[in-house]
């Protein structure tokens, strides 16, 4: 049995001291995927390559459709196969740790009905399995798989110890938005507040994760709200987690109005916040469906000035969402953006995506 397959891990929540050595990963550890059929994808790839000194051999140019929603057949033949060929041709299968997709590369596969055994999945989450697939591993298409890196707070991410790629996406509404996101990643510093907004004083799993995240960070760097009100207009924010539009107090307001610091990341418990990365109409509100749902969008946070955000292309279920009690302490301690999100993510081959530069780091406090 391949060691990726298994039930979702439920690790105890313990206060911890990070003792691992933070490896300074560079552009040589990144494969950038651009779509020849999308000019914006090509521009993003070129800009990111110049800013992160990505070697020419680490740019993978595929030629596929530009639709957000695709079939599994298009995914396998037009995305997964050519990316595997890029890695093999350049001899990068082991050296590359992070795969970066770009705006214009398809977002999700839409076969299947939904539910825990759905074949619906994000392109990025499925691509995490490519490392093992290139070594002959086979995986079921339906449902999710256990993430072998989940909860690995004290371990450096490396191959072959962790037989996956960490996949993030440089996407937003436009080239200008992604360009600004990359620039903010390069300017990231370990400063500012981590803001956690619960639904209220009730005892529930999601809110308890938020409270634990607050306990695992320095008290002078945390704002924790345990009331039913929603926080708006916060300043000097470097991290934010909440229920988003699933919190009743947020349903009337699309924007949180934060002042985000460079390097700020976001996670919220919202089922379909990455259902699309297209720009909604200027007057869109959360009372009107957009791409089928009335929920807030991860890309909105990037538009406001955040540098990274997690999201879900379809219903993920709470137990598979990136855990804030792992994500934010790891990021604060100096993990890069990709490692922070993925060590917080219980499953792969599922609905999750990560928006942002994988190399973005606050550095050690």
Features:
9 helices; single chain; 15 strands; disordered N terminus; alpha/beta; four-stranded parallel β-sheet; 24% helix; six-stranded mixed β-sheet; 365 residues
Describe this structure in words.
The structure is a single chain. This protein has 365 residues and is of the alpha/beta class. The protein has a domain at 187-336. Helices cover 24% and strands 17% of the residues. Residues 1-21 have low confidence and may be disordered.
Mean pLDDT comes to: 93
Shape: globular
Strand content: 15-25%
Strand order of the largest sheet: 10-9-11-12-13-15
The N- to C-terminal Cα distance equals: 40 Å
What low-confidence regions span 5 or more consecutive residues with pLDDT below 50? 1-21
| Count of distinct strands | 15
The major β-sheet equals:
6 strands, mixed
Helix/strand order = EHEEHEEEHHEEHEHEEEHEHHEE
Structural class: alpha/beta
Instruction: Enumerate how many helices there are, as a single number.
Output: 9
Helical coverage, percent range: 10-25%
Radius of gyration: 19 Å
């Amino acid at each position: 049995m391949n060691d990726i397959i298994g039930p979702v891990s439920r690790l105890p929540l313990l206060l911890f001291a990070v003792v691992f050595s933070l490896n300074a990963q560079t552009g040589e550890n990144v494969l950038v995927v651009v779509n020849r059929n999308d000019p914006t994808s090509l521009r993003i790839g070129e800009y990111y390559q110049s800013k992160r000194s990505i070697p020419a051999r680490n740019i993978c140019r595929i030629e596929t459709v530009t639709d957000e929603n695709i079939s599994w057949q298009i995914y396998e033949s037009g995305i997964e196969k050519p990316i595997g060929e890029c890695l093999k041709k350049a001899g990068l299968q082991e050296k590359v740790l992070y795969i970066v997709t770009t705006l214009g590369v398809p977002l999700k596969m839409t076969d299947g009905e939904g539910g825990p055994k759905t074949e619906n999945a994000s392109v990025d989450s499925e691509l995490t399995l490519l490392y093992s697939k290139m070594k002959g591993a086979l995986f079921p298409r339906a449902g999710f798989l256990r993430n072998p890196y989940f909860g690995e707070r004290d371990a450096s991410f490396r191959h072959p110890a962790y037989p996956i790629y960490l996949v993030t996406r440089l996407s937003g509404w436009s080239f200008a938005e992604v360009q600004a996101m990359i620039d903010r990643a390069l300017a990231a510093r370990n400063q500012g507040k981590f803001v956690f907004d619960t639904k209220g004083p009730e005892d529930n799993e999601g809110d308890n994760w938020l409270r634990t995240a607050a306990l695992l960070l320095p008290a002078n760097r945390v704002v924790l709200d345990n009331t039913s009100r929603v926080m708006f207009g916060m300043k000097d924010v470097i991290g934010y987690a909440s229920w988003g539009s699933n919190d009743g107090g947020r349903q009337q307001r699309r924007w949180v109005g934060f002042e985000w610091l460079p390097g700020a990341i976001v996670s919220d418990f919202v089922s379909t916040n990455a259902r699309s990365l297209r720009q909604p109409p200027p007057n869109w509100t959360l009372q009107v469906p957009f791409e089928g749902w009335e929920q807030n969008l991860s890309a909105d946070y990037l538009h406001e000035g955040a540098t990274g955000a997690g999201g879900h292309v379809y219903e993920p279920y709470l137990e598979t969402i990136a855990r804030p009690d792992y994500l934010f302490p790891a990021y604060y301690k100096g993990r890069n953006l990709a490692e922070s999100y993925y060590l917080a993510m219980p499953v792969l081959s599922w609905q999750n995506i990560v928006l942002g530069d994988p190399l973005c780091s606050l550095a050690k406090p």
